[in-house]
Specification:
The protein is an alpha/beta fold. It is built from nine helices and ten strands. The chain has a domain of about 70 residues. Helix content is about 35%, strand content about 25%.
Length: about 250
């Protein structure tokens, strides 16, 4: 299994951000992780990526335990946060070269992937300092950097924020292509149209608890509607209106 989350709980003081979460994402699947603000999405992503440690439970990436063998797990994974970090005093090209060196990707491979992906993502500013990049420009370079080492797992938090419509379509196509090539793609987003368009399975977290997971057809059946994912999401989260509500059987 590419991502295996087993009964994970994370607290911040008295607040339970993630409560007994169990979830699996196999290779070759686009998994959309949805939830209202403060539901626990970003906390979950940071635990998958090794940036936070669970208080209990365990997470494995490509069968490698993140808590006890984080370095090995992170070699299999790429993470694109909602606020991508670049080194302001490096050009985009220098930053990508640095990322390639960290993952020990051969220079020729880095150059080839940078050339191909920068053309697809319409990146023509790699020789400018990143301090002058807009959010969308940073987002595209961060995604390119994430794919340099050909990860088996790609985790993204709001990947479409700041992107123009043409690039949004390109990124959607790219995520589907990655999944078809065997990569597990874990996408957290508030853009429900994107999740509806590309996700094989969808999970909804609310008040730190996974309330349902399944295909869009299965979620529509649970919500008793044939409408859009937006309507399904609203119906299911309204049913789970309190922190002590019961989860929907999955």
């Amino acid at each position: 299994m590419s991502i295996a989350i087993e009964n994970v709980t994370k607290r911040f003081g008295r607040t339970i951000a993630v409560d007994g979460l169990s979830l699996e994402v196999p290779p070759g699947q686009v998994f959309a992780f949805l939830g209202p603000n403060g539901a626990g999405k970003t906390t979950t992503i940071k635990m998958i990526s090794g940036l936070l440690k669970p208080d209990s439970g365990g997470i494995r990436v490509c069968d490698i335990p993140v808590s006890t063998n984080g370095l090995a797990a992170r070699t299999q994974l790429a993470y694109v946060p909602d606020q991508p970090f670049l080194y302001d005093k490096l050009t985009g090209r220098e930053f990508l070269g640095f990322v390639g060196e960290m993952y020990r990707v051969p220079i020729r491979t880095v150059d080839k992937r940078v050339k191909g992906l920068s053309a697809r993502l319409d990146i023509d500013y790699l020789d400018q300092l990143t301090e002058g990049y807009s959010h969308g420009m940073r987002q595209k370079v961060a995604l390119l950097a994430a794919l340099l080492h050909d990860p088996k797992v790609l985790v993204t938090d709001e990947p479409m924020v700041g992107l123009d419509p043409r690039t949004v379509r390109t990124v959607k196509n790219l995520l589907r292509e990655l999944a078809e090539a065997g990569t597990a793609v874990f996408v957290s987003t508030h853009t429900l149209g994107v999740a509806e368009a590309i996700a094989d399975r969808i999970g909804i977290i609310h008040h730190g608890r996974l309330i349902t997971v399944g295909t869009l057809a299965e979620l529509r059946q649970q919500a008793r509607t044939e409408s859009s994912l937006e309507d399904v999401f609203l119906a299911l989260t309204e049913e789970q209106s309190g922190p002590n509500a019961e989860t929907i059987p999955v």
